[in-house]
């Protein structure tokens, strides 16, 4: 068989794999309806771990303090900060009765490990249901706690939410950052709806204290500096105990990185946890990335050679149309509709970035939590 025949056959296989993901997996989120929430108001502990976040806390903490919810506390963890973080959170504590401060002193065994600080904050919390966000995040609604906690039940002990990044006009980097965030959200929402939850994001994640202690907390990956959100979810989430929330009142929004270098370093840290996922998740995610990469590589090669171009064009357009439909409905759910106009360009840039990160991480280890 000639080389072009092999490439052509490989392209057909790749397109079939891609169509499989979009029609059988991603369509679950694209065409889903939000599950009905409970009317019960569980007492909730909102947990925020802050390391050198004094300025961000002044900006974003008021949006959490002002939440419309009958009974909640805010556990503010100062993770050995060197700025004015501790002074800021103590000031908020003096102004609000429902704020609890946990001041974590650095010890050699856990230096720079956010999981140690989070564990102390969780132990100090008063309530059985925990809602996590970051110091540079703000809820996009005063009903954020209400929306997230309403999906706890006797069966559901983990709630996956969406953490968006703020839009910046006329910034390609901002679109790339948000596209990666949306793509990741579509992935973990779709997998969860298919009964295979594999991750969540610490910007907007909730689980029960019982679930945390039943799993012995972060002990299985305590030596890894990252993964307090996705690795924990990957360890404990099942098709029975996990709920997804994508109503707009449940969104949080964070400050996006202002430079490509800063975002690239952040993504390097995040990617290191994926190799510790369950094997079935690694296989499915690896196949998804590989098929994305080879779809563009093989299609470009076949277009340049002109080999069976009519068939190649038909397969190429079919995959793009299916992608546009599923991504369009999904991005509308997540209030990110503007990204659809740049879909192919953003996807190509993201693939290149992810592949580059993979190669660089093989050579050197990324920096850890601040």
In the CATH hierarchy, what is the superfamily of the largest domain?
Answer: Spore Coat Polysaccharide Biosynthesis Protein SpsA, Chain A
Helix content: 40-55%
Low-confidence blocks of residues: none
Structural class of the helix and strand makeup?
A: alpha/beta
Q: In CATH, what is the class of the largest domain?
A: Alpha Beta
Question: Looking at CATH, which topology of the largest domain would you report?
Answer: Spore Coat Polysaccharide Biosynthesis Protein SpsA, Chain A
SSE run: HEHEHEHEEHEEHEHHEEHHHH
Q: How confident overall, as mean pLDDT?
A: 93
Kindly estimate the percentage of residues that lie in beta strands according to DSSP. Answer: 5-15%
Q: Number of helical runs?
A: 12
What's the count of strands?
10
Number of separate domains: 2
Compute the separation of the termini in Å: 54 Å
**Which second-level CATH architecture of the largest domain applies?**
Alpha-Beta Complex
Largest sheet entry: 7 strands, mixed
User: What best-fitting shape do the alpha-carbon axes yield?
Assistant: elongated
Widest β-sheet, arrangement of strands? 3-2-1-4-8-6-9
What is the gyration radius calculated from CA atoms? 22 Å
């Amino acid at each position: 068989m000639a080389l072009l025949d092999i490439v052509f056959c490989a392209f057909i296989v790749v397109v079939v794999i891609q169509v499989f993901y979009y029609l059988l997996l991603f369509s679950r989120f694209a065409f889903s309806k939000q599950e009905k929430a409970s009317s019960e108001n569980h007492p909730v502990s909102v947990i925020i771990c802050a390391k050198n976040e004094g300025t961000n806390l002044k900006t974003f903490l008021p949006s959490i303090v002002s939440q419309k919810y009958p009974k909640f506390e805010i556990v503010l963890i100062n993770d050995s900060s060197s700025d004015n973080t501790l002074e800021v959170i103590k000031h908020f504590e003096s102004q609000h009765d429902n704020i609890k401060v946990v001041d974590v002193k650095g010890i050699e065994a856990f230096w720079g490990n956010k999981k140690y600080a989070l564990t102390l904050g969780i132990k100090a919390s008063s309530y059985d249901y925990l809602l996590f966000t970051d110091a540079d995040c703000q809820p996009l609604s005063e009903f954020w706690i209400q929306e997230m906690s309403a999906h706890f039940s006797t069966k559901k002990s983990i709630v996956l939410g969406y953490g968006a990044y703020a839009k910046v006009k006329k910034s390609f980097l901002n679109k790339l950052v948000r596209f990666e965030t949306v793509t990741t959200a579509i992935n973990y929402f779709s997998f969860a709806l298919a009964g295979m939850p594999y991750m969540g994001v610490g910007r907007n994640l909730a689980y029960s204290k019982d679930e945390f202690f039943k799993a012995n907390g972060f002990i299985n990956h305590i030596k890894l500096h990252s993964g307090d959100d996705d690795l924990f979810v990957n360890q404990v989430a099942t098709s029975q105990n996990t709920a997804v929330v994508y109503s707009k009142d449940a969104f949080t929004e964070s400050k996006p990185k202002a430079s490509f270098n800063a975002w690239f370093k952040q993504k390097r840290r995040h990617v290191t946890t994926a190799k510790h996922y369950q094997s079935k998740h690694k296989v499915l995610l690896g196949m998804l990335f590989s098929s994305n990469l080879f779809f563009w590589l093989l299609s470009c090669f076949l277009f340049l050679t002109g080999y069976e171009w009519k068939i190649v064009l038909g397969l190429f357009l079919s995959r793009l149309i299916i992608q546009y439909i599923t991504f369009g409905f999904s991005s509308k759910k997540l209030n990110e509709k503007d990204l659809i106009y740049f879909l192919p360009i953003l996807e190509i840039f993201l693939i290149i970035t992810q592949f580059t990160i993979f190669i660089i991480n093989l050579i050197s280890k990324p920096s850890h939590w601040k």
